């Protein structure tokens, strides 16, 4: 495995946090801190829909890229409350989180809807960050690999070999999200390597080696170095710690140092 074959990506997932003035303030604080990551590590902030325009204006000309936290799979129509991929690209959004466990848990997201959203995002030119991960119950039942394999196979069904290079996979064990319980670097590496193996079966080894796989779930300034040192962990999807400029930057710098 050669990590240099793929892009290191540190993405913040702000979830349902920050008004527009607060978003501007946080991004203004993050921008100068992470400027040295340019060309080495992709730095992304995935923000609520209402903050997208502010975030794009605030980060213009910097190396901080902006992502959304969800996208609908239809192009347009009678889908009250939803946002299409074209609406996002028109704003200048580059990335979108798809299938986050909170959406699976609270909003009825399934592997099938993850698949539809992923294909719609790719078609519109967005780069999806597709989230997968097992619950504590599934881990204890020893079915982590089955669960992850299904999420990957169904979630990425129909993705062409060329398109998969624009997909980021985020492995986020549900039991580690927002709980302060991080997977050990060994546990995280084991599943990230398994995901790469599944991608190699679906596509081929060279293609799988080029896909960025992130770890997410209570990654923070204290534990990021060890996690990011693992051969198949190419970055992080960061919730709580992405809301603090210094903590987020510490994670970015750990990825820069590689
Ligand atoms: P956390 O969230 O870092 O707060 O655990 C990660 C995520 O949900 O993406």
Topology:
Layout: E1 8-13, H1 20-34, E2 41-46, H2 52-59, E3 64-68, H3 85-91, E4 95-98, H4 101-106, H5 111-124, E5 127-132, H6 136-140, H7 144-155, E6 168-171, H8 185-202, H9 205-209, E7 213-216, H10 224-228, E8 235-238, H11 245-257
Parallel strand pairs: 1-2, 1-8, 2-3, 3-4, 4-5, 5-6, 6-7, 7-8
Helix pairs in contact: 1-2, 1-11, 5-7, 7-8
The chain binds 2-phosphoglycolic acid.
2-phosphoglycolic acid is lined by residues 13, 172, 177-178, 216-219, 237-241.
Tally of separate helices? 11
User: CATH topology, which one?
Assistant: TIM Barrel
Q: How far apart are the first and last residues' alpha carbons, in Å?
A: 15 Å
Strand order of the largest sheet: 1-2-3-4-5-6-7-8
> What would you report as the Rg, rounded to the nearest angstrom?
17 Å
What is the count of structural domains? 1
pLDDT averaged residue by residue:
97
CATH architecture: Alpha-Beta Barrel
Can you tell me the overall shape?
Answer: globular
Provide an overview of this structure:
The chain is α/β, with parallel strands linked by helices and 258 residues long. The protein has a single domain, classed as TIM Barrel, CATH 3.20.20. The chain has eleven helices and eight strands. It has an eight-stranded parallel beta barrel with strand order 1-2-3-4-5-6-7-8, surrounded by six helices. β1, α1 and β2 form a beta-alpha-beta unit. α1 packs parallel to α11. The structure holds 2-phosphoglycolic acid (PGA). 2-phosphoglycolic acid (PGA) binds next to β8.
């Amino acid at each position: 495995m050669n990590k240099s074959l793929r892009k290191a990506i540190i993405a913040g997932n702000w979830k349902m946090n920050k008004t527009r003035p607060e978003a501007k303030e946080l991004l203004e604080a993050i921008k100068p801190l992470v400027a040295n990551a340019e060309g080495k590590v992709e730095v992304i902030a995935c923000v609520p829909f209402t903050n997208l325009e502010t975030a794009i204006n605030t980060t213009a000309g910097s190396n901080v890229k902006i992502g959304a936290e969800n996208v609908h799979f239809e192009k347009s129509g009678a889908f009250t409350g939803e946002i299409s991929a074209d609406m996002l690209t028109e704003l200048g959004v580059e990335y979108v989180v798809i299938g986050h466990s909170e959406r699976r848990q609270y909003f009825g997201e399934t592997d099938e809807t993850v698949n539809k959203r992923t294909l719609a995002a790719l078609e519109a030119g967005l780069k999806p960050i597709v989230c997968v991960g097992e619950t504590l119950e599934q881990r204890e039942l020893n079915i982590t690999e089955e669960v992850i394999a299904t999420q990957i196979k169904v979630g990425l069904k129909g993705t062409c070999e060329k398109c998969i290079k624009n997909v980021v996979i985020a492995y986020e064990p549900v039991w580690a999200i927002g709980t302060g319980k991080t997977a050990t670097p060994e546990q995280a590496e084991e599943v990230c390597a398994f995901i790469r193996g599944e991608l190699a079966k679906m596509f081929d080894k060279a293609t799988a080696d080029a896909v960025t796989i992130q770890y997410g779930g209570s990654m923070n300034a204290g534990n990021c170095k060890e996690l990011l040192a693992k051969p198949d962990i190419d970055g992080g999807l960061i919730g709580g710690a992405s809301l603090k400029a210094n903590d987020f930057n510490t994670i970015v710098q750990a990825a820069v140092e590689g």
